[in-house]
Sequence to fold (712 residues):
Amino acid sequence: MSISTVADLLYHFPSRYEDFSDVIEIANARKQLGQNVCVQGEITEIGSINTFKKFMNIVEVTIQDNSGQIKALWFNQPFLLKSLKEGSFVCLAGKVALGKEGIYLSNPIHEIINQDVENNELTHTGRIIPIYSETRGITSRWLRYIIKPILTILENQIPESLPNDILKKHKFLSINEAIWQVHFPESFEYADAAKARFSFEELFLIQLSVLKEKNRLMEKYAPAFPMDAELMKQFTESLPFQLTDSQKKCAFAILKDLEKPVPMSRLLQGDVGSGKTVVATMAGLNVIKKGGQVAFMAPTEILAKQHFKTITKLLKDFDVSIGLITSKNYRICKNSSTSDVDPNFEVSRKSLLGDLENGQIDILIGTHSIIQKGVEFKNLGFAVVDEQHRFGVDQRAKLFQTSKLTPHLLSMTATPIPRTLALTVYGDLDVSLISEMPKNRKKIKTVIVEPSERSKAYEFIEKEVKQGKGVFVICPKIESKKTNENLTPEVSRGRASPDFVPQNYNIKSLSSLSIVNDVKAVKEEYERLSKEVFPDLRITMLHGKMKAEEKERIMLDFAKGEIDILVSTSVVEVGVDVPRATIMMIEGAERFGLSQLHQFRGRVGRSDAQSYCFLFTTSPDQLNRKRLKAMVELDNGFKLAEKDLEIRGPGSLYGSQQWGIPDFAMEGLFNIFLVEKTRTTAKELLEKDPELKDYPILKEKLKSLEKRIHFE
Ligand code: ADP
Ligand code: MG
Fold:
């Protein structure tokens, strides 16, 4: 459970509580069928049965108090016979059920009461008890059993990390009290007060870290690149389209930042298809012509190659040399209006890196290979990180290290980030937003397709293809198997989008298992579509297990119109730009999060032709329906993210594992008041004491937070 120290254990907070503080008489408990109750009494009878038919063991105990008696049954826990003895006193907490032989307590939590001790403080029953997130072999009971004595031993010895005046000002519980109350609260009010303190502290630390980083950056020196207005005008005039006002505004903000000798740290946000690439390219051109080099980092190989092509084209009249680096592929395109060099000119890694180091390459585009050892720029002035949420802070930092100077940094993302998050997670960045879409775009028509309407959808697709349009078909798996092993690699590593499968799947929604087995697999779907449904059309499949060259060739063929239907996994999720594609068909749509669906949808609607998004689903689940309906109603990524937040809650949307922020603090992350309070407090403290010299414990905690947290 990544618990390796006592502190880790104490900070493994309960995910919820069960209220067993009200111990009632057994006679009363018998009347509360279906309710959770807590009773105490003496064990008068004990026994165990094995039912061979169902391979089940049942431990059966009768307890008695002054008011009456009740049975308790435990299923498949024969070891209980060791601890439960006739004549001992126990406290039992659990649900009152009705079986063949009458009323009984079903699988109650038990606790032996030591009658020799007065005012026996109970741990598992007779109080509000903590329920922890569990893992195999580690139960809440075991955690309570381990944690309570530690808390008793440590009484008042945990050093206070929050400054005194902050504690006073916000009337927070002290750390010792808060730790106790969060695990074994006297009341729900105390539990809330404890959690309030800890989520304040966590966000406060994040703010401290982010603001310190910002202060550090402000002290660094970056090369200044004065804006060449004439050149920028030439560039915009060379484009086959007009920049939107929003694009112009964002480009201007970036160009202004680049003029300062302080490293820019800007996030360019813009919905899918809003045209971020051209904005970054424009700023890059300015940097190049003022003597700097540009790095352009993309999250996948497909995207890096696509950017290489796009940017080569955008800059073809500007005499710029552009390099491409991926794990196995090195290319250079020395652009100029006079020569017509093959943009696919392959070179050796050595020659590429040589040219980079002596400044003969102006822009290097690549995957994360771009920040690996040996990649040295002569004069890196401007680094662009596309789809920035895929890269961690440490990777951003690495990008800095490759050069003697600190380059200006532009991160780009289509991931909508609520204001609260922008202030915390991205607190060290200035944010520019491309708020409008290119004017030629038509709203993508989104439809939920019921199983009965499948053939109608296919007919429609065939008609579109006959008119030269391209179709994406997205399936959640590569091969169909009974196990989940074949989730596409991105998914099984949990990296795809944080919001792939809703994480709040619980046992109750076992009905969803049938859907899992029903998941459309790319290979099968490819066979089915090409043999049975569209035997006359040109269909190809694409998935993450293919070789890079193969993927690239397929994407090219698809873009050129030599493939009609591309059956793919989520590899086409981000960034892929094929304007002739007008239909995005998503199988098992309920399996994807809204942001990811929106990313998929953004693969079409990239020209002035009407585009469509078909969401195929067989899930009757109400929550899933609600989410898919939101896709139909909303076409704005930011609104969709808000909706997802509303439907699923922050935990599942921005998985806490993704960033290393504990669950208890996640909720606070979406509370604008708390976020602003922590931000102001952090600012004030850093103004007073920039190095936190007077707060060694806080400083220590900050260090460990910085190790733990990785914003993506
Ligand atoms: P994203 O912001 O999702 O990265 P891209 O930069 O890939 O979007 O741009 C999407 C498509 O829109 C590209 O084909 C690009 O050439 C085109 N585009 C960009 N800006 C405009 C504009 N102002 N008018 C028309 N098309 C544009
Ligand atoms: Mg993009």
Notes: The longest helix spans residues 188-219.
